[in-house]
């Protein structure tokens, strides 16, 4: 039996996913709940690397508490950014897998992200995100096929009733 605390956590994660990544706003509530099955809690100490530039991005990381430092190839002041509570990194994986959901390659990071303070958050691993996106693509194909079939059936019914 699912406890009330687990239900609240799942609803909170779904809410965060929905607002954190624009593409997820186009997805059904059921698909977002399904994705929550793959989300894992993450705890990191300070000065831990989440991803280094030129390494594959292996996860989407949602910051619930703490601070991350993100900087790009150029070490200029505008190339640095601090991520805090409610921020996300790795969201480019969504576009990467949507472009080619069956790709065996991972997107390569153009920035380094490390913790400034102790971090609490949750992660969605790339292979789990890929699985959810493939399921989303299959659902869209099935829905499209069903709509086409219903439209053809409707057209045939109208033609037979008018003849």
Can you tell me about this structure?
The chain is an alpha+beta fold and 163 residues long. It has one domain (39-162): Jelly Rolls. The chain contains 4 helices and 8 strands. The chain has helices at 4-20, 29-36, 92-99, 126-162; strands spanning 40-44, 49-51, 59-65, 68-72, 80-83, 88-89, 111-115, 119-125. Strands 1-8-3-6 form a 4-stranded antiparallel beta sheet. Strand 4 (68-72) and strand 5 form a beta hairpin. It is elongated and about 75 Å long. The relative contact order is 0.18. The mean pLDDT is 83.
Key phrases:
single chain; 163 residues; alpha+beta; four-stranded antiparallel beta sheet
Beginning-to-end CA distance, first to last residue: 57 Å
Task: Give the tally of structural domains.
Answer: 1
User: Residue ranges: pLDDT <50 for 5 or more in a row?
Assistant: none
Which structural class do the helices and strands define? alpha+beta
Spatial shape: elongated
CATH class: Mainly Beta
- The H/E string reads HHEEEEEEHEEH
> How large is the count of helical segments?
4
Radius of gyration: 20 Å
CATH architecture: Sandwich
* Share in β-strands: 15-25%
Order of strands, widest sheet: 1-8-3-6
Largest sheet: 4 strands, antiparallel
CATH superfamily: Jelly Rolls
Helix content: 40-55%
Q: Give the quaternary arrangement of the chains.
A: single chain
For the secondary structure, the number of strands is 8
CATH overall fold name: Jelly Rolls
Compute the average pLDDT: 83
């Amino acid at each position: 039996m699912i406890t009330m605390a687990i239900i609240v956590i799942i609803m909170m994660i779904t809410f965060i996913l929905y607002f954190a990544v624009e593409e997820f706003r186009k997805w059904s509530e059921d698909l977002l709940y399904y994705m929550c099955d793959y989300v894992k809690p993450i705890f990191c100490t300070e000065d831990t690397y989440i991803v280094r530039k030129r390494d594959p991005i292996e996860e989407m990381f949602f910051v619930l508490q703490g601070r991350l430092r993100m900087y790009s190839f150029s070490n200029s002041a505008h190339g640095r950014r601090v991520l805090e509570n409610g921020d996300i990194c790795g969201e480019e994986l969504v576009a990467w897998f949507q472009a080619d959901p069956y790709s065996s390659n991972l997107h390569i990071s153009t920035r380094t992200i490390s913790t400034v303070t102790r971090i609490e958050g949750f992660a969605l691993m790339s292979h789990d995100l890929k699985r959810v996106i493939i399921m989303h693509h299959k659902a869209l194909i099935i829905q499209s096929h069903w709509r086409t079939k219903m439209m053809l059936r409707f057209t045939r019914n109208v033609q037979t009733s008018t003849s």
